[in-house]
Write a structure and sequence with these properties.
Blueprint (H helix, E strand, L loop, with lengths): L2 H20 L18 H11 L3 H6 L2 E3 L13 H21 L8 E6 L2 E7 H26 L12 H4 L1
Parallel strand pairs: 1-2
Antiparallel strand pairs: 2-3
Helix pairs in contact: 1-4, 2-4, 2-5
Length: 165
Amino acid sequence: MKHSQILLAEIKQEAIATRKLLELVPFDKKEFKPHEKSMTLLRLAMHVAEISGWWKECLLQDELDFAKGNGEPKVINSTADLVALHDKHILQAEKILNEVNEDEFAKPWTMRAGETIFFTKCKSEVVRTWCMNHLYHHRAQLDVYLRLLNVPLPGVYGPSADAQG
């Protein structure tokens, strides 16, 4: 099986779990922070929704240069906006993985800020680390935020304590 198709299957599975969590974000609590050093609930939820959009930068481009800026900040006004952002990025990721040449995964990719290079790794490692593992890390944080806000959590890899009663 092609590398792209293995990742695509995982994205489709994980998109369901991510979407379930984003649907539960209480927008009236968007400024909630469990600690002064933590992101707000809205910033974290936006980050989770945005990560699925990184496939273009991590697989179709050869570098990410923070010195070049990253465009206009997104405005999210509701939980529905969060879900729509996630859904848009998932569709884009699916399209990229269905069309990408398998040779692309072996090419080097660099993260930098102008002349400062943070790292250069092969794209197969970059997409696993930045597009997948990074998502799981922040999705788990979002789970904790929601738990602290007493939002009943859905199951991801089986029933949650809330789903079991």
